[in-house]
């Protein structure tokens, strides 16, 4: 369990990286599980950030972490687009063509 506020950001970054690796492998269930873990960490971060502040150094680290999380998220979304298109076809009664 994270002990300092910045540790929550680091844990979210680590989980985001795990999501990206799982997405690269096509392990979408693992992506979804990691997404759930991220949601819990974000909730905990919100709770703890009400009572604690980041130092200047930690704010710089937070910025780096947030940029990496956004990069990871963008890559995951690119990989998910074909999967989501296939899902939409199935949901609308179309035929799914597996590659």
UniProtKB/TrEMBL annotation:
Its main location: cytoplasm. It comes from the Bacteria. Keywords: Bacterial flagellum biogenesis, Cell projection, Chaperone, Cilium, Cytoplasm, Flagellum. It is found in: Cytoplasm, Cytosol. GO terms for biological process: bacterial-type flagellum organization. This is Flagellar protein FliT. It comes from Limnohabitans planktonicus II-D5. The lineage of its organism: Bacteria, Pseudomonadati, Pseudomonadota, Betaproteobacteria, Burkholderiales.
